[in-house]
Amino acid sequence: MQFENLNYLYALWLIPGLIFFYAFAFKAKDQALGAFCSPKMLARLTPQVSRARQKVKAALIIFAILMLIIALAGPKWGFHWEDVQRRGVDVVIALDVSRSMLAEDVKPSRLERAKREIFDLLSAMEGDRVGLVAFAGTSFVQCPLTLDYNAAGMFLDYLDTDLIPVPGTNLGHAIRNAIKVFGEERTKSKALILITDGESHEADTLEAAQEAQKEGIRIFAIGIGQEGGAPIPVKDGLGGFRKDKSGDMIITRLDEATLQKIALLTGGSYVRSVTGNMDLDQIYFKGIKKTLEEKELKGTRIKRRHERFYLFALLAFVLLVWEALLPETKKVKKL
Known about the structure:
The protein has 335 residues and is α/β, with parallel strands linked by helices.
């Protein structure tokens, strides 16, 4: 058995509380009546009162609440396979994880803001395959093309500036790696979202962009960072900023010119992010979805688990009706 929302199961603590409450209430009632008269006299004065039925009614209420809690948690068991056919485009997101992305001119930092925007984009995507490439001085495929956005989100969550030990920002390597992710299929449904501060230290960036253009890949570049630049925090918990060999503070600046050339060369677009709002939704819906041709993606089989909450809800209803119809008193035979 699986549950859709485990948070509701915390309410199960109500059950021992209710048991304790009813036990205390019955005991207090017995003590109060015992102070009034003896048990034999009480039985003669109130022959129709049934303590057993009162306890049964209390038990019915407790079990009904238990069933309602389980129903709210969304129990599921059993499943069937469902074939799903989708149409969409292939989107690879290349995210810069170099040390310069620690700069805080975009709050809370360039990298954290970019990751939050990508999470929002994943929640908005429907029917498109998504892949993830991380890059700094080199690059690697963090997540191949997939329709499982939850899995892509899990890979994204692990991205950090410590992930790639090679320093720098190699845009050319990232673009070439993204080309490999798309595969050799010739289609007009390939988009690369490149999120970086653009400080590439390699000279072959435009050559890589030309290779992407020949493969029919459109690059949508997002430059993140302030125009005046920002220092790079030292990630050691001690505070301070990174310095060069001369002892001068290193300032990381946004290289918009390169990113604009990359986007123009491939038929994509460039967006500058200076306030933290990278307009990923706008790039996705107005740029990628409107300008790229959708294709028939490979069908997948999804395991659909069967909802069973209604069984527990029905049982709770029956128990409550039973409790309401069960009288506390019993019939007394007249002599």
